[in-house]
Amino acid sequence: MDFKYSYFTRGCSPQLRELIECLDSSFEPIFEANKIEDDSTPFKTLSQMQIDTRPKMDAGLTIATTLGVCFFIASWAGNKALDECYETYLKPGFKDLVNKLRRSKTIPTEKSIEFYAVTYFGDLDCAVVIRLTSELVMESEEQNLLIKETLKSASSYIEQYGVKGKVHYYHINNGNVNIEPMLRSSIREIQSER
Fold it and tell me: Which of 76, 96, 161, 164 is a Cys-bridge partner for 26, taking CB atoms 3.0 to 4.6 Å apart?
């Protein structure tokens, strides 16, 4: 499968450097080993990939951190593409990331973290966005299983009903997830929801 990737982060100013380092050191070795190239161009050129990365001041916000891993795939390959993204890249990278964030001295474990797994399919002009809202105390294996099952659901929906919007959005929150996608126009629109 031929694709490119990129990341995005958002958090309180003092945490941004550590967030970027944790994200990079968790996923970059996996991408490099598989000779996958980084490409942030879609954030500038695709309307659905618009994101908000402005640093936030911590005023008692319940969401401390936002981290996103994005895959840019030229053509739809159904569940096979999503399964490969999950098994080869998301699962091991996410597990390592959660372990690093738990050991962090600057990222509070009692506040929620938002992890975005985004897969954009060029031929469909559609992004499948999975947003996991969780505290770092939740086991990463449980989170990983929820992400995998949601990717299967997303694939089945597109196979059965086709693309219904620029963004098919699934939100995993406290172990619950929507079965059908919520349709949005961009990642930024999702980020504005709380």
Answer: 96
Q: What is the DSSP string of 17-34?
A: HHHHHHHHHHHHHHHHHT
Task: Tell me how many degrees the CA angle 163-43-81 measures, rounded to the nearest 5.
Answer: 45
| End-to-end CA gap in the chain | 34
Kindly state the tokens that stand for 157: 């929906």
- Summary count for the chain: helices (H), strands (E): 6, 8
DSSP code for 36: P
Please state the pTM of the whole predicted model.
Answer: 0.89
Report d(CA 182, CA 170) in Å as an integer: 6
* Residues, the chain: 194
What does the alpha-carbon distance between residue 55 and residue 11 come to, in Å, rounded to a whole number?
6
Residue 170 backbone dihedrals phi, psi, to 5 degrees: -125, 130
2-11 pLDDT, tens digit each = 789 999 888 7
